[in-house]
Recover the amino acids of this structure.
């Protein structure tokens, strides 16, 4: 229902905001929008157009994140970010997590923290059944771990 509602509103704005409509079509995963731009002007334009499109649909976008101080200042000026997300780098130095992937905004790098998975796997019995269950536990909607997961699945076919 949510996806159909969003698609409906995006179609309404295709003529007005063609680039932003396409960006949203390619960047929405359930209720998250993940994407970026190469420069601040494009990022700001897209973010304000996204806010307008969703506001017209009765939805409020929040949790904006960026590693650009200039863009962050524009968002603060326009009240697009709340107090807890008004800093480019988290005070704790911890990465921002999105869709199971960690983003270090200071270094602008994405990574998958495998420590919890390793701890879980070390307590399991080595069997085909457990291996298949463990593969299913890997949450990777963005597809960064696809080559690894594929390799494990191919290994399962050989066993």
């Amino acid at each position: 229902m949510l996806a159909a509602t969003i698609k409906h509103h995006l179609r309404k704005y295709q003529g007005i905001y063609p680039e932003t409509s396409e960006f949203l079509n390619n960047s929405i995963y359930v209720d998250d929008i993940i994407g970026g731009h190469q420069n601040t002007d494009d990022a700001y334009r897209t973010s304000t157009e996204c806010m307008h499109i969703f506001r017209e649909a009765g939805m409020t976008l929040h949790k904006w994140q960026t590693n650009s101080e200039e863009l962050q200042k524009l968002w603060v000026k326009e009240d697009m970010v709340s107090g807890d997300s008004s800093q480019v780098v988290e005070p704790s130095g911890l990465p921002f997590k999105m869709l199971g992937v960690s983003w270090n905004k200071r270094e602008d790098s994405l990574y998958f923290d495998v420590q919890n998975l390793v701890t879980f796997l070390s307590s399991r019995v080595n069997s085909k059944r457990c291996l298949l269950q463990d593969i299913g536990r890997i949450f990777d909607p963005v597809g960064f771990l696809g080559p690894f997961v594929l390799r494990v699945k191919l290994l399962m076919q050989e066993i």
